[in-house]
Amino acid sequence: MTEVLDTSALALQLRAESVTVGYGAEPVLRDLSFDVPTGRITSIVGPNGCGKSTLLRTLARLLPPSDGRVSLDGEPIGRLSTRDVARRLALLPQSPTAPEGLLVSDLVLRGRHPHQRWFRQWSPKDETIIAEAMAWTDIAELKDRPLDELSGGQRQRAWLAMTLAQDTELLLLDEPTTFLDLAHQVEVLDLVVRLNRERDRTVVMVLHDLNLAARYSDTIVVMHEGAIVGEGEPAVIITQDLLSSVFGLEAEVLSDPRTGLPIVVPVASAVGVRTG
Amino acid sequence: MTATDTRLDAHPAGSAPLRLGWLSCLVPIRGVVVAVAGLLLLLFVVALNLALGDFDVPVVKVVRILLGGEAEQFQRAIVLEVRLPQTVVAVVVGAALGLSGALTQTFARNPLASPDVLGVTEGAALAAVAFVVLIGAGRETVSTPLQTLGLSGAAFVGGIATALLLFLLAWRRGIEGNRLVLIGIGLGAACSAATSWLLVTARLQDATTAQVWLTGSLSSRGWSEAKPVIVMLVVLIPITLLLVRTLNALQLGDDSARGLGVRLQGSQLVVLICAVALAAIAVSAVGLLEFVAFVVPQVALRLTRGSRPPLVSSMIYGAVLVVTADLLTRTVLPFGLPAGLVTTAIGGPYLIWLLIRSKRKAAL
User: Is the pTM for the entire model greater than 0.80?
Assistant: First the structure.
């Protein structure tokens, strides 16, 4: 861990500086500031409609703030060329779409887009990085299969391989575990942790599941009604009070005996509990 | 976990890595085979189209005439002055329509999104018919070059104007494929209705002139029609080929494309301008050759088995289809039928098949 933190002085800095996103009386994000913790895994959590995907998309320069700015290494991200940004920051959108019949390897190859030129479309570096990305995500055997024939977990790994092929220090993942069963969610998140620990990737992701967020993040960012209401280590942030005030959820927070990390156990209403 | 064990075949199956100095690319093997086969097929139908007709000229003699060898004056005139210009028009118009369709279908991520379905060609037709009927270009029995130019120019402007209108109506913080198609179909229907109304109210002679032009007739088209299309192709083919990687990224959706560093709106605009200009110039040269831009890219896609309509093969097979249509109308079908009827006869059933198939797929 210390090595990872040491590199942070050199590594990329992505920050939102008092951004307002959306127009009118009720913007989605209002005057929000957030520094992405470099070299760490950060999960943005919050109830539906709290603006967590909006924050991630704003950080990824997909949504222009109506006020404030997003900066990458001190420069306003809107003023950098989009290609330049794409070499430093990769994004996995929520439920991405691919054309029918696209091969896995063809998808991964497209991750090289910001590094390619019309005359340089298969450099030795492209080849190495694509092979590595496929090895990391364990999809090398699936490379010649059409994407639409794969299972949900396999498909998500292929998309992750595409973002890895982009070869960026920063990865922004918008709900990377949606529509996956628990085993595949864990598989994807294990991969995210390895990327962070072994390859020094800074990861910011939006997650729905609080227990998984607590288990797999260094930092948790809690959002509520377009603002950040808590930021810090999972064990500090996830409390009974927070769950009731932000999520409107009556729940107990237990401590995982193995890891010491918080586990959220909703208190079931009397109707839902079976005692027999 | 090392890269070396998978290194040899990291590239997609069916492609061959090619590196020459600082140049590197992946050659799609199947795509090249399909394109070469298409070129051979094109040579074959072009040869037939030059040889056959009211007076047959043996293919050997056609080749000799083309190479400047000895032949009877009469045969030389038929081949060089009648059939060659008309065949060249068929080739370039087919190529322009095929390329245009491949671009719009990729752009909208929808096989229905060809310039004829999007209303661009109907808009061009409306403008041309309006030119004939309202300005009375058809009053003279012999059309002068100026009138031909006016008709073509009107068609071109009409196509571009319809595309602009389509943009304005479909734009909602970006262009979305299905919305584009639905609005395009509406626009196309409106243009067709206006065209019909003009034809009903027109003088008989004007209506006839307009109707013949509308159905996509290749007969007596020559160099003056071919030239603008050739110029457009020479300018736009290199631009579209440079767009290939952008098209590949655009296919992954707007968010992914932008994440990969594509300047989304700028690239979309360039793709659509190229596509619309190609369709409009093709219509302005020969009238409505329906369904070429719609069918050919999808057929080429099935042949190459890629993930989007191939640009080069769509051009080649577009040319093959239009030359074949010309050949059939001149040799097999009864007198005077325009080539547009042949392409429509092929395209209509294909559209029905596509709709049935996609419905079944959605139901599964």
Answer: yes
